[in-house]
Amino acid sequence: MLTEEKIKKNALKFNETGIAVGVINNKLLDLLGVEFITAPCTTTTALHGAYDGGLIQHILKVTKYAIEINNLLPEAKQVNKESIIRVCLIHQIGKSNMYAEQKSQWHKDNRGEMYKFNEEVLNLNTAERSVFYALKSGIELTEDELNIIALSTNKQ
Question: What's the pTM value of the predicted model, to 2 decimals?
Fold first, then answer.
């Protein structure tokens, strides 16, 4: 679980970093809605991030680790840091409204299902939805960035 303060701090870092590399703008933030700030990363406690703010926390951790791994590579194999950040920040924004709160206490207590899939959103996998949101908001991605998002995101 994250404190309200940590959720806000993570959201600010996500926004500032995304604006700096050109993948976050007001149109995208409006599309994602304020719910994005508290969105979970997954549905169940058996997986990572099934709590308020879990999605942005996950995205920030992935970004940090991707940069660290890139820095360990020989210089000739390293990828442009800004492109890594762009891909990492966009790669799972499609989960923004993908989950809804689980109302069944039995499912929470017995299965650890804190959220369920939101049946009201268009049926796209995470990568497709993430790219759709970015492109719809006027975010330009390179072909390589689009490909990496498609390859690196689980097919939920």
Answer: 0.87
